[in-house]
Specification:
13% helix; four-stranded mixed beta sheet; mainly beta; elongated; 8 strands; four-stranded antiparallel beta sheet; 150 residues
Length: 150
């Protein structure tokens, strides 16, 4: 199973917004580092599809429950560094969600990350749903938070 890079890209979407400098992106990322420590990561199953209005209750109702599934925790993110593509980034490491022996399987549609306090930070859908129903099946996520400079 190959890891899927999950990038929380905090890019501005409007050309009239203020520009983020390279040092500013690193400073902001440093503030986020502590706030995201002990974040929880979960997978959700089909047919749920996350959107910008997804609630914790909706995500919790769709949480994956395949045999061997357990919520992931990001103990700490790496030190923020300047990103080669501009701005700054930090890495939460690889989280692997693997099917265990026998039992229920799921079709996994995506993931979400929530703060240690339980606030949903972001959610995303996989391009292609992942079938997790046999030994050797699973999902590995590489969690990267990136703030580009403008």
């Amino acid at each position: 199973m190959l890891p899927v890079e999950v990038v929380l890209d905090l890019s501005p979407t409007d050309s009239d917004q203020a520009l983020m400098t390279k040092p500013g992106s690193l400073a902001l990322m440093t503030l986020l580092q502590d706030d995201l420590a002990l974040s929880k990561v979960n997978l959700f199953k089909s047919p749920y599809v996350a959107n910008g209005f997804s609630t914790k209750a909706e995500l919790d109702a769709a949480v994956a429950d395949f045999d061997g599934y357990a919520e992931g925790t990001i103990t700490a993110f790496s030190a923020p560094l300047y990103d080669p593509s501009g701005g700054a980034s930090m890495n939460g490491g690889v989280l692997t969600f693997a099917y265990d022996t026998t039992g229920d399987g799921n079709t996994v549609n995506g993931w979400w990350i929530e703060s240690a306090a339980g606030a949903v930070i972001a959610a995303g859908n996989f391009t292609d749903p992942v079938l997790v129903n046999a030994p050797g099946d699973g999902v590995s996520l590489v969690l990267v938070v990136r703030i580009p400079n403008s």
